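call fold target=N-acetylneuraminate lyase
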Amino acid sequence: MKNEDLKGLYSALLISFNEDGSINEQGIREIIRHNIDKMKVDGLYVGGSTGENFLLSTDEKKRIFEIAKDEAKSDIKLIAQVGSMNVYEAIELAKFTTDLGYDAISAVTPFYYKFSFEEIKEYYEMIINSVDNRLIVYSIPFLTGVNINVEQFGELFKNEKIIGVKFTAADFYLLERVRKAYPEHLIYAGFDEMMLSASVLNVDGAIGSTFNLNGIRARKIVELVKEGKIDEARELQHITNDFITDVLNNGLYSTLKTCLELQGVHAGYSRRPMKSASEAQKQRAKEIYEKYLK
Ligand code: SI3
């Protein structure tokens, strides 16, 4: 598959857990089917923040990668987020998902310690040079505290296997600079609530948690921008952002999961220490579902 074939709209896959925190395989399969059959997404981003990935063991991550590939087969594109504080785990997962046939891997910038850019670059080189695959940098400064500037993106992109970035930041000046500087690299918008603005800047795709439920509306925003129908796109972004604001206020992943449950998809519990929805939050999620998704 050519790099440009990786463009498109990807759901950051939600993961269903049982009440005891174990993986709910049937629930995960149902979420994947819902994304393919109802949301009509181009691909899935597996093992991201939305997948509560950083709360899981290596074996659990591997099992989720296996389930996603087994359920999705080659019907849609699959990107595996393998990044970890433990670069050796990241390498192990990069090898594992490449062997499974994932179309690309992605890795969050290493976090917690204040790594220098040289260290960050070496982390990426170690991961991607261990496999015959392509890598998308996962930049999410508001959670990691790691900011990468235009020149540093250029340093990373010198490795031809590092083909793009998932840009989860509100810095649209930086996004514009990166777009202009690296027209051949793939940029995925990471904040669903800023999809319109990112589309105007000509990103190559988007990866988001809310597409698990709002995927059809999200795609329409992208299409309207491409057709130059900015007023209509803005109206849809307004509705989308009313939805996202209500979801964020009620608890992001637990509300998305409750909304899926209301559609008969067993999205299950969250993984501790992440809290699952309380009765009051479930009630509010029902109102959100009825207002925006029915
Ligand atoms: O890694 C992932 O699961 C993502 O793709 C994350 C994605 O950028 C989401 N960010 C987080 C922290 O969940 C967004 O889709 C986000 O949930 C949404 O824009 C609402 O703020």
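return ok
The pocket of SI3 is lined by residues 12, 45, 48-50, 168, 190-193, 207-210, 244, 248, 252 (CB under 6 Å). The longest strand covers residues 162-167.
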